[in-house]
Structures are given as structure tokens and as C-alpha cells.
Predict the structure.
Amino acid sequence: MGMEGIGARVARKEDKRFLTGKGRYTDDMIVPGMKFAYFVRSPHAHARITGIDVSAAKAMPGVIDVLDGKQLQADGIGNLICGWMIHSKDGSPMKMGAWRPLAVDTVRYVGDAVAIVVADTAAEARDAAEAVVVDYDELPAVTTSLAALGEGAPQIHPEAPGNLIFDWQIGDGAATDAAIASAAHVTEIEIHNNRLSPNPMEPRATLGIYDSAEDHFTCYTTSQNPHVARLVMSAFYNVAPENKLRVIAPDVGGGFGSKIYIYPEEIVCLWASKKTGVPVKWTSDRTEAFLTDAHGRDHVSKVKMAFDKDHRIIGLKVDTIANLGAYMSLFSSAVPTYLYATLLSGQYAIPAIHANVRTVYTNTVPVDAYRGAGRPEATYLLERTMETAARELGISPAELRRKNFIRSFPYQTPVIMNYDAGDYEASLSAAMQAADWDGFPARRAQSEARGKKRGIGMSCYIEACGIAPSQAVGSLGAGVGLWESAEVRVNAVGTIEVLTGSHSHGQGHETTFAQLVADRLGVPIASVNIVHGDTDKVQMGMGTYGSRSGAVGMSAIVKALDKVEMKAKKIAAHLMEADESDIVIENGELKVAGTDKSLPWFQVALAAYTAHNLPAGMEPGLKEGAFYDPSNFTFPAGCYIAEVEVDPETGKTEILQFVAADDFGNIINPLIVEGQVHGGLAQGIGQALLEEVRYDEATGQILTASYMDYAMPRADDLPSFTLSHQNTPCPGNPLGIKGCGEAGAIGSPPALINAITDAIGINDLTMPATPLKVWSALQGSSMRMAAE
Amino acid sequence: MYATSYHRASSVGEAVNLRSSQEEGRYISGGMTLIATMKQRLAAPSNLIDLRHIGELKGISVEGRAVRIGAATPHADVAGSAALRAVCPAICNLAGMIGDPHVRHMGTIGGSVANNDPAADYPSAVLALNATVITDRREIAADDFFVGMFETALEEAEMITAIRFEAPERAGYAKFANPASRYALTGVFVAKFTSGVRVAVTGAGANGVFRVPEMEAALAASWSPESVAGVSVDPGMLMSDMHATSEYRANLVRVMAKRAVQAS
């Protein structure tokens, strides 16, 4: 592998820039004549707009213009779209209500944008925004999915009667019902998956620049996929044709999914720049981020899992209601369907599965993909159910899982997915050994002696990454293909630029992608630059989400490198008068195998560009591009174990150890992979113990719009993690890699809740397991015991 | 934040004059609450009078068991004072639990006590230590100082200059932090003097910091964690919010009191 090749623990090239404050983020961009925007937002969860008076605001100091939704509509700017069509089980298409970039007649959540103020300074824009008078007729609001489906609930969009967006199903209902009817045991449980706010460190920002001389737009934005942003803004929002719109996503400080989507602010700032004739910048503050960044999760599910007398699962039936918020965000329909229900087989051989999913409008922030996107919901549901079943059946959680593991591959589940490779036993055994599972009873006794309640819990997760085969997702309703592209550009003196459609916003691509090139060509990573995030520099690309940049993005680079290598070998063979098939590339040299003849890499590159002596008919230059479309998803899997101690006096949970045993296939850079797992675990632990977006159900006001009330995990909430990796290389891509970005957030919540419920001896506990909730559960059980 | 005028005072007298002469003036010390509130546009004083550069407001003096902490002394200085730790480690420990290092280097005892946030740590110490709040014009006993949530006995333009107390024989502070804000969801400060015991609770009271006479009596009879374990507080007088019900807070008062005694 070499010092810097595949498998090497190389420190991140980009960290010097980030850690010394030299990163260049959207808000750092300054262009001549730039002005600042502030958005007037709805203070109500649901209201009719009866009038907007901007006259006082326009007279405020520094104000350039105040623009509203009617003007936007008059200029032909389109509504925001959801890019994945789902059909209900009756065949009808999903019922999508209009999401106007600036609300025209109705606001549907607190934070819904109503008007934009452009002024000389951000403070002046904000002052003037307060002087915009919007008259509202308040309407009743609803925030929970169950209430929104209820009789007489407020109607949020006329297009979706009863607030039902779609009623979709997957799997074989009759076979599943039959399995349940014939079962020796059926475990029933209700599962809540709490609503989360993504909280990337860098809040969203955008800078819209209109050049009237060229009739051309430039959009700087905090995006995980600038090409998709350009495509959607051109094709659907009518901002500008693609050749007149450049989208640049420079350094981006985290996304976790929330920066996949195109939000109203990008569109409105571009339009406002043309209207006002000045570049317009908007930067979200943290409160706006809580109010407007797409939330994650928010599922309520009923589950039935059927077992035969030997404790084998014979059927799984799931009924889920997913809250999609006030509008359908870009991928919102795919998350609780194809990214969720297709994973309900987990690591288990389940002959019959049926899932029904209803999605619902509420007067809340739109909900879309957040780290894991559907797969955490599936894993939490399945692994809480397995744990509950093990307790009911009186067998160990490990034994129940082992009995049901899929053990031969490929394996076709009843819910679309075809697992290509895996060894679930290997991760389970590794995790149990690392956690000293067998020594737990003695440790529990020690805790008991100190008046503490100790518990242990596991979770065996699987996820589908490497998103995704274009034809397959197209047949399921996706509006785009999910391939990736790469271009490898060898410069005349041998240094290399790799242009990728993947986007790095914390993942370390500048290092790992360079390691791949170093591995193939034997050049140092310092001579390889990764170029991304600019539609003018990089050919088309699909961006970064769904743990796809390694499995899909790097596979495209491999294909381009194959072509570069082939041409370089031809040139080398010609120059050294050898046969092309005898040329090998080693340590930065092209050698004739079995001889001492060699040419350094840079000399071959130079030869390609001087073109003085190339094989007959060969074009000059050394630059190749490739598109890679995966043949299947990839299936990272693993086993997580949490061991906790609960203080019964306060209900506070301390995590004593957390073990993660992951099979990500081959690993490019263990250091970066471990960092991804650590970050994912922090978010999963956040979901399990701390984080929840709460609304006032009567008014629809968000109650957790700051860190005073929204509990983000901090360093002292987290233990030191014990990690290990098992490896069944992915057979579907050239590097054998599966993806690691989301696993930590997917696998950890059920392990923790299984551990806490084990500790307190009460199975009925929802996330986040706050001290208040755990203490209250303990009080309830002691009251029940006293009553008995 | 709305536009505001900033004034830097160099003496107590100058500060009080500025505060009285400027319209809509506010003292600012560490600004750990005020600046955040102003950034959210929930407070909009036209004039800020900064007290952090007034030499006479800073510093800790310990003479025998008499302690005086200048109002503009940051939490980090209280947490790190060896002289104070020698006579009253509990208040040093309390200061070390406030916020994070950034907050502890900016926030001051005078600012915290004057703000009287119902979830702030210091009011419990001031009340339990039977401290005297010294202002630019008078001395106020702790029992008279804390009036209600964010309300104190301070008059318009009156400024805290120092906190004074006699170090107790023993004292302890235990805090159960709000998982989100890390303010006290419930904090209990216990102090034992030759004259008696004082127990003060922050974070829990519907009317701000309060004393618990039953616990004081129990601890006066026997200074041990078990003494308070059986004393219950009426949930009816406690706050209830999404982070903690009043019943949960009542439980925490008992548990934290026990742990405060343990820590003493």
C-alpha cells in the first residue's frame, strides 16, 4: 500500500486549512458591490397572509429593496419540488402541495419565508425586516403526524386532503399476516423515532450574483451537491438555464444531509440580485437554522414480529406514519420509503415482510434526510423489536440474533434489497469479545453494590449505501440518476488534478481521493489535488450523501485512472521500445517488467504534452474522464454494544463503554474512517440520550430553537469508543468499499436504549432517554410495585 | 443586536453617574446573559456601561474567615483562588461548574447575582452563606436581596460592588445540570455555621432561589446526608418545564442536598 496509499493512516491534507481558520466558506466570500439580505419570516405556524406593507421598511436607512412572493411569482420563478415520485398503494401519485420560495397567501410553519429585505449592511436589513408589516389571519396548527391525520385536523395543503401525502406499501401483506397468524410467538411494540435538528457547525449561507452584461448568475452556497442545485434551479425553478448559472459550494462546514436540498434562500437571493442589480448575500444565524434547516426522523410505528417455536422470525409487519413537515423537501418522499422500508429485513432471514407507510403534512419544519436517512429508523425499529422479543422469549439477545442471521450471500430480501456480501457473526463476535459481554453479570453486581443500575445492550445494523444504481432508482421514482463522475488530469510535469462530482464537507476527500491516486501511480499525495464543488470546474456530478463518495465517487476515479494508466503505458512502451503488456507502474515509475528499463512518471506525462514522439495516431495530452454507475447498493453492517450505568436517584445515564464493530469492506484511510464512526456515534448518542425538536402542540411554536433547550452532545457526554473493523470486501465496486459515513448514527441509538431498558428493567422508554424520562419511568414502576 | 452606545467606566462613581445620566442605560459586566439577549434583540439598552475595567471591583480578599469578592471578579478567579479554597472550597467548586471555560473567564459574580437568573449557581451560595451584598450605596443581607425570578432588591442604577461573607465551618454544593444549557436544573448549597445551618436551592424554585428550613433544622441536628434524605419539598412551589417536572425537581432537591452534604 505504500506510506500514503490505500490503507494508510494519513493525516488529513485539508486540516491545516480548517484548523488554522483559513478555510473559505460561503460567508467568507466578498464581491464588489455586495449587499446583505434578511428574510421576513412567519411568526405563526399556520396563517393566511392578508396583506404585506413594505413602505416603512423601504424608507429605512440603507435599504435597497424589499421584495415579496407575488413579485417572485410574477417573474416566473417556480415552486420548490420533491424529486422522488412515490405512488400510493391505490396507484395515485403523491399529493404535493405548493412550496413557494416566498409564501404568497398562506404560511405553514414558523419560519416560512415571506419577504426579503436587501440593504447595505446585514444589521440594516434586519432592522428593516422588522418594519415590514405582514397582516396574518391565524389558522389552527397541528404539529404531530398522529394529530394531523385525526378527524377535524387543520387542513394544511388543499392538494392533500386530510394531510395525507401518500399511503404506500412494500412487501407481501397476505403472506405476512399468515405468518403472524401461525406464529408461536408475536412480539408487538410501538416505536417512536424522535425529530432531530441537524446542526452543522456552519450555518447555511448563500451569495447570489447576477451579471447583467452576460445575463449570467453565480450562486455561492452551502451545498452538498452543487450540480444537483444547478440542475434543479434551472430545470424546475426557472432561475436561469444551466449554461447561465454557475453554482459554487466552497468549503462547507458539515451538512449531515441538511445541505443536500435547495432551499428558498438560494433561489430568492439569485432572483433578488437580478431585481436589485447588486450581489446579495444571506447568512443564517443559529436560530434561523433551527427554524428552517430540514429536520430528520419523526416516525411513529407499530410493529409485529412473528416467531416460530424455534425462535426463527417468520414474519414482520410494520405500520409507519412519517411526519414530513409543512412542505415536501427535495428527497423527503424517498426517506421513509425506499431508504427505510427496504432495510427492514436487517441482518435477518425473514421470509415475509410487509410495511405500510403513510406520510403526513404538519405545521413544522420540512423533514428530509439526516445522517442515515431512513436506515436509522429501520434499524432502531428492528433492533428494539429484537431486544424486546429476546426478553419475551427468555433467550439472550445474541442467541436470538445468531439464530436469525443471514449466512449465505447474495441474499434477496422480500423488500427489494439484494445483499451482496457480509459476515454478521464476525462483527457480533468481535463486539461481544471487545465488550467482555460474558463478564457483564459481575460488573452489574458491582454497580448494584454502589446503588447504581447497570445495563448492556446490542444492535446489529445493516444499511444500504453507495447510492445508487441509476436505472433501479429511476424505476422506483427518483428524478435523477445516482452515478458519479471523475476526471483525472495529469499535468505536463506529472502532478495530478482529480475533478470529482463528489463534494467534501468534512469527509476528507482531499486526502482519501489523493491516496487512491498515490496507490495507483506511486506518486506522493502532495502532488495530487482534488477539485470539487464548482459547476464551472467540474463536469456533472451528483454530490455527497448516503455514504456514496467512496463507493461511487472513487469508483469513477478508478475508471478514469484505468484510462490514464492505459494511455501512459502505451506512451512508455513506445518510448522504451517495449510491449505495452510488459509495462508496470511502480513507485512513480513506468518500468518494463523483468528489465532495468524505466521512465519516471513525470517524463511520460511530459512526453504526452510535448507530443514530439507519441505512438502513431495518438492524441496529445494525458487527461481522462469517466462516469461510474453502481450495479447495486453497498451493505455496510456491524454490531454495536453499549454498556451504561443509570443513577436511579436522578435518572441520569452514564455510558461506561461503547463498542463498535463495523464491516465497511476495504478501507482507504483508517484514521478518517474512525473519525467518521466517532462523529456518527456522537450523533446517534445525541439522538438516544439528548436531542429532540419539540413543538408547542397548541400554537405550533418551536420550543427548542436554541442550545439553551436543544441538547447537543458534548465531549463529556461521550465515552472513549472501542472500534474494530471486519472486512468482507464489497464485490460490486472495483475498490471493494462499502461506505462508513452514516453507520455510527444508524447503529448506536438502539444499542443505547436496549442497554438503558436492560438497566432499569422497564422496556417502555422513548428517545431521547433524558434523566427526567428515565427517572419518571422508574417512579412509575416503583409505584406499580407498591400498588401490587 | 440593535445599535447601542458603549461606555467604559474606570471607577464606581463614574459608572453610577453614567448609568444615571444616560437614557435606557444598563450596566454590563461579563455580559454572559445580556449580550446573548441583545443579540436576539430581546433586550435593547441604548447605553451600556462596562464595569469590567474598574479596579476596585476586582479581586478576592480573605482575612481570617472574612471573605470579600469584588463584583467584577470572574468565575475562573473564584474557582482558582487558593486563599478562598483554604476557607470555603464549596464556592470555588461552584464557580468551577458554571458554564464552560469561556464563560468562566468572562462572567462575574456581581453580574450573576444582580441578574438573579433562577437557574444560576451563585444565588444559592450567596443565600446559603448568609452573605452580604455590598452596593455603591448600602449593604443588603442575602435574605433580603433575592426577591423573585430575575428580581432583586437593587434600586434603579444601584450597583453591586462586592459580596462579603464569613466562611462557614463546612459547606458543599451539588448541581444537576440541564442537559441542554448546563444551567442548574437544580442546585443545592449547604453551609454549616456555629450559629446554625443554611440550605439554599437554585434552579428549581418557581420564585427563584429559596431556603429549605426543614433541611436546615435536620442538618443542624445532625450534619449527614441521611438527615436530608427524608425531607421533601412541595412540588407546588417549584418550576415545571419541558426539561423537568416539578415532581422531578422536588426529587432533585433532596438528592442534590444529600450530595452537597456528602461533598462538604
Remarks:
- The first strand of chain A starts at residue 35 and ends at 41.
